[in-house]
Amino acid sequence: MTAGRFARLVVLLLGSWWTAGCGQRTTVEFWAMGREGEAVAQLLPEFHRLHPELRVKVQQIPWTAAHEKLLTAYAGGSLPDVFQLGSTWLPEFAALGAVAPVPERVRGNPALPPDDYFPAAWQSAMVDGGLYGIPWYVDTRLVFYRTDLLAAAGYAELPTDWPGFLAALRAVKRRQGEHQYAILLPINQWQVPVILGLQRGAALLRDHLRYGDFSNEAFRAGFDSYLQLFAEQLAPPPGDSQGANLYADFAAGYYALFISGPWSVGELRRRLPPDRPWDWRAAPLPSPTGVTPGLSLAGGASLVVNRRARHPDAAWKLIEFLSTPAQQVAFYRLAGDLPARLAAWNDPALANDPAALAFRVQLTQAAPPPRIPEWEQIAHKLAEYAERAVRGELSAGDALTLLDREVYRILEKRRWLLRKESSG
Amino acid sequence: MMRLADRRCWLRERNPAWWFLAPALGLMVVFFVLPVIAGLVLSFTDFDLYALGDLRRLRIVQLGNYLDLMQDALFWQALKNTLYFTLIGGPLTIVVALAAALAVNSKLTPCKRWFRSALFLPVVTTLVAVAVVWRYLYHPRFGLVNYLLTSLGLGPIDFLGDPLWAMPAIILMALWKNFGFGMMVFIAGLNAIPQRLYEAATLDGADDWQQFRRITLPMLQPTFVFVGLITAIGYLQLFAEPYVMTQGGPANSTLSLALYMYQQGFRWWNLGYAAAVAFVLFAAIAGIGAAQLRRRKGNP
């Protein structure tokens, strides 16, 4: 009895403390992933100073669980007001109706000028012509290479055209010997074959993204040159790279080049031994002609507002704040994520960093992958068939034909929905 | 409509055991039977991401998912891998468990308790931690296994990167991880065999091997059924080992049915299709379990 009465008293006191003095302060819920979640929390004191009537509650979600957590939160109706959404997930959440198109009043907001963003980043937040979020940070893939191994093979700089690039890889491989390689291409990733296809003008999907278009000549040409890198043993054979540590192997000279994104800049600076007698550099991808950098994939993440947000206005204020060039730079310094906003790149932290500059150049030549919810599944299939072709289980032609057949099945529902929409 | 008196009699005629079972049965219905039925219904639809957003985008496909499964090469691959793992890994685990039980139980073994705990330790160790260590052991260039192989003059094998070797590597790890449980059950079974049987056999002049074949094995029969069934059920649901070690690769050589179901359901949110995989897996487990029970019963 006394214990029960005491408990009731505690609840009462806690309750009054909880509700007391809150005034009209609005709390915005914000979910961010991994490192970004940690970093963004450090930007918020400034936001709270500018908007004393608002409070932001950040929840940090590990990347590996993020997709599942967001979808279950959607199903359970507990999505936060604002959240971070990777560019390949955006079409999915747009299709779900979890995210509404950005309202007109926000699009016309001078604080968010579309022409101050990398076009590829802006594009990656668009689905079927509608804008669903504001790009937060961008990423793309380019080449990292060891200057000493390239120099030893007779190259002071990485050639910018494919024939020259291939010749450089061969020269490096000759010096590397039998058990070391020129370039690392992880066998279970889809990005490199897609990039090579895009560079040759492949569309990947056709007829309003209703069918796979991988048997197409342009994609086939890119796919063939991908397979060639393995056939000539310029890249480690399948499996040899698995379980290995990318950066340790790079430091050991197991390969001289690899293709990766901005996160590798920080990792290389952190992990490589500081007393090493060699250096690395980042360079844009080679292109068929070598005049401009070769096309790469654009990725990154956008900030989106939940369609059923309780505080949409406060949510947009937060996005506006995080999109200011000053906050974009601060975020870059904390998390190493490249700003989506062009004005931020004038800051010395970015303008004087040679690795960041390489990314800036590459970002002018980048395109997002097709923006449909099924893309990740298609990409996964693509990686699967590419692996089988590399292993020699299938010829290049057969692999792509079978891939198109799988994609046909994956996109069946999409075709049905589009038919239904157009008929009714 | 039953009259009140009738109803009272009806209630009274029930076996009172039902009333004691009711709470447990109620929980089972709510948390097991109903979800299973919901899963079965789901497997006749094309429930996916689009349907999650708007139920009007849901189609009833009847047996469509099951028919698609029959034509899905990856499903057959996953089924083949699962059976490979169960049929090779299961008997191996039981044999090793029995051998370990006999060794630990032997009068000649010192520090029995220590060995028993040490051999049981892998069972209670977190799989993720185990997987990290085994990934290093299997590493083609720095791994201990390959170090031993190379010192024997055998070439390094890329265990987790070679489609031929990945499944044997997973089986070896699962064997090491799981045999301790079977061992404990066998030790209990061995201790339950009356000592006088061995004494009588010794008087009759039976040697160790004869005693093992004519006394130990027949007396362990019920233990075999139990360990066999538990191992088969556990192994058919192979998931965590490939999930943390290989993600189903290389070239899908370690993709199990449960992993395939997880990928379809929680990676691509094809929940209808994943539910169909779940019911095929369920049927396989029920079938193999029933067959095993019947075989043991018919052969006392």
Strand content of chain A: 15-25%
Distance between the termini of chain B: 51 Å
Mean pLDDT of chain A: 91
- Helix and strand succession of chain B? HHHHHHHHHHHHHHH
E-strand count of chain B: 0
Secondary structure topology:
The complex is a heterodimer of chains A (424) and B (300).
Chain A: H1 2-19, E1 26-33, H2 34-41, H3 44-50, E2 54-61, H4 63-75, E3 82-86, H5 90-96, H6 104-107, H7 119-124, E4 126-127, E5 130-131, E6 134-140, E7 142-146, H8 147-152, H9 162-176, E8 183-184, H10 191-199, E9 205-206, E10 211-212, H11 217-231, H12 246-252, E11 257-260, H13 263-271, E12 280-283, E13 296-305, H14 312-322, H15 325-335, E14 338-339, H16 348-351, H17 354-364, E15 366-367, H18 375-390, H19 396-410, H20 412-423
Parallel strand pairs in A: 1-2, 1-3, 8-11, 13-15
Antiparallel strand pairs in A: 3-13, 4-5, 6-13, 6-14, 7-11, 7-12, 9-10
Helix pairs in contact in A: 10-11, 18-19
Chain B: H1 4-13, H2 17-42, H3 49-53, H4 64-70, H5 73-105, H6 112-124, H7 127-137, H8 144-151, H9 163-191, H10 195-203, H11 208-219, H12 221-236, H13 240-245, H14 257-267, H15 271-298
Task: Give a written overview of the molecule.
Chain A has 424 residues and is an alpha/beta fold. Chain A is built from 20 helices and 15 strands. In chain A, strands 1, 2, 3, 6, 13, 14 and 15 form a seven-stranded mixed beta sheet that branches. In chain A, strands 8-11-7-12 form a four-stranded mixed beta sheet. A two-stranded antiparallel sheet of chain A has the order 4-5. In chain A, α10 (191-199) crosses α11 (217-231) and α18 runs antiparallel to α19 (396-410). Chain A is globular. The N and C termini of chain A lie far apart (66 Å). With 300 residues, chain B is mainly alpha-helical. Helices cover 75% and strands 0% of the residues of chain B. In chain B, α6 (112-124) crosses α9 (163-191). The longest helix of chain B is centred in the N-terminal third of the chain and has 33 residues, at 73-105. At the A-B interface, α4, α5, α18 and α20 of A face α3 of B.
